[in-house]
Amino acid sequence: MEELSLGVPEPILERLPPEDETAATDMQEAVAGWERRLNEAIDEADDDRDAAKQVLEAIDRFEQRYQTYDELVPELRAWGQSPIYALAWRTLYADVVAQLYDHDDLGEHLERERNARLVQDGIRLQDL
């Protein structure tokens, strides 16, 4: 499997307050770290299926974090706080997941692995 290349989309960075450069830097460093760890997991994987499992576990975590930030937005608004950072991080997690699915043949492997998990979970549920 080819090496992953991830990035922070420019529109996300443009929505951040211009006086706060640390948020953009934090996002770029976070994405670079995710890219590095995912590439290490892919390199250490025995085959493409094992690599897809590792990436899918990361996607699951990204989707959980997306959900956390999504739930935080109305709460921040209710307290009169700006949700700009929660919105930016939420959008970043969604975009990184999309980047992973769009990456060469990885999306196909991810779909296969996700389907295999659904079948496996369904079989386990039938046994109960």
Strand content: under 5%
Number of helical regions: 5
Give a quick account of the main beta sheet: strands, pairing sense, barrel closure.
none
Mean model confidence by pLDDT: 90
Low-confidence stretches: none
Radius of gyration: 17 Å
Structural class category: mainly alpha
Q: SSE order, as H and E?
A: HHHHH
- Write down how many β-strands occur, each being a DSSP E stretch of 2 or more residues: 0
Shape: globular
Helix content: over 70%
Beginning-to-end CA distance, first to last residue: 37 Å
Question: Which keywords apply here?
Answer:
mainly alpha; globular; single chain; 5 helices
Give a structural overview.
- By secondary structure, the protein is mostly helical.
- The protein is built from 5 helices and no strands.
- The chain has helices at 10-15, 21-44, 48-78, 84-102, 106-126.
- Helix 2 (21-44) runs antiparallel to helix 3 (48-78) and helix 3 packs antiparallel against helix 4.
Question: What is the topology?
Answer:
Layout: H1 10-15, H2 21-44, H3 48-78, H4 84-102, H5 106-126
Helix pairs in contact: 2-3, 3-4, 3-5
Describe this structure in a few short sentences.
The protein contains five helices and no strands. Helices cover 79% and strands 0% of the residues.
